[in-house]
Amino acid sequence: WDETHFGKMGSYYINRTFFFDVHPPLGKMLIGLAGYLSGYDGTFPFQKPGDRYEQHNYVGMRGVRLCRLFCAFLGSCLVPFAYLTVLELSKSLPAALLTAFILIFDTGCITLSQYILLDPILMFFLMAAVLSMVKCNSCADRPFSASWWFWLSLTGVNLAGAMGVKFVGLFVVLLVGLNTIYDLWDLLGNLSLSLVMFGKHLLARILCLIVLPLALYTAVFAVHFTVLNKSGPGDGFFSSAFQSQLIGNNLHNVSIPE
């Protein structure tokens, strides 16, 4: 059922048809982009679960053949992410390998990754955010180095990605936030660190973990409203003034008093 739901939304993006959904737009935009790049024309109706795809090129979105495209590829990335995260935390190769093998042979992970769903996209950004956070923590002995800035910024990018797919991504924001508070508290208690240097640490985290994710999250919605410029099933959820901007809507280009 969910594949029917989100596959249809991918088609909406390809056809630039406006719709409304409870989830943020990033995951569905990526599904639509993957379908578009792989040759899918957005014409499959996705009316009910179990419909045959027949001649429609769904491989790019679903990824069940060839190179395990998109959703399957993102799902496969969870294995190295988990391996690297556990290896960084435990410094134990057997523990990291065990974690990777558990995910490789997990039926639920394999099943979720082979359909047109938001879950593999969400899990990709969640685990990438945790990996980036752990890598940034490992650079604590060389703050403001190139690697430190890279992992800190990448953490912010992945936080925006997680929030942009589903609001449940806020839980990884909470995790990173608690880790950052602990880190800053530890720095504040370091008597060898000047207040000026502590202020630089604080400013760096505000820029990379608050400003950057919010800017990217807002940019996702800007792209969403720019792409979906044609009238569709989501028109009625918005004001008449907004509907007048949608091509094909009855109110298109109508002058509406404020």
From TrEMBL:
One of its GO terms (cellular component) is membrane. The keyword Calcium does not apply. It holds the Pfam family PMT. It is a multi-pass membrane protein. The chain crosses the membrane at residues 66-86, 92-109, 149-182, 202-227. InterPro entries: ArnT-like_N, PMT-like. The keyword Glycosyltransferase applies. Pathway: Protein modification; protein glycosylation. Residues 1-229 form the ArnT-like N-terminal domain. It is found in: Endomembrane system. Belongs to the glycosyltransferase 39 family. This is Protein O-mannosyl-transferase 2. It comes from Neopipo cinnamomea. The gene is Pomt2.
